[in-house]
C-alpha cells in the first residue's frame, strides 16, 4: 500500500495501537492527523 503523500486521520492516535500506527504511517511518508483526548501524549507524539 502506498502511504506517501496521503493524509491519514488516526483516532486515539497518541498512545497504544493508535500511536504505533501514527508513527509507522508518518515514517512511510503519510501526513498524519492524530486525534486523542490525552493532550500530553499527543504533544509528545508530535
What would your notes on this structure say?
This protein is an alpha+beta fold. It is 41% helix and 22% strand. Helix 1 (16-27) links the parallel strand 1 (7-11) and strand 2. It has one domain. A two-stranded parallel sheet has the order 1-2. The protein contains two helices and two strands, in the order βαβα.
The number of distinct helices, counting runs of at least 4 residues, comes to 2
Task: Report helical residue fraction.
Answer: 40-55%
Low-pLDDT residue intervals, each spanning 5 or more residues: none
SSE series: EHEH
Tell me, briefly, the overall form: elongated
Question: Which SSEs are present, and which pair or pack?
Answer:
Elements: E1 7-11, H1 16-27, E2 31-35, H2 39-45
Parallel strand pairs: 1-2
Give the structure's gist in a few sentences.
The chain has 46 residues and is α+β, with helices and mostly antiparallel strands. It is 41% helix and 22% strand.
Q: What keywords describe this structure?
A:
2 helices; single chain; 41% helix
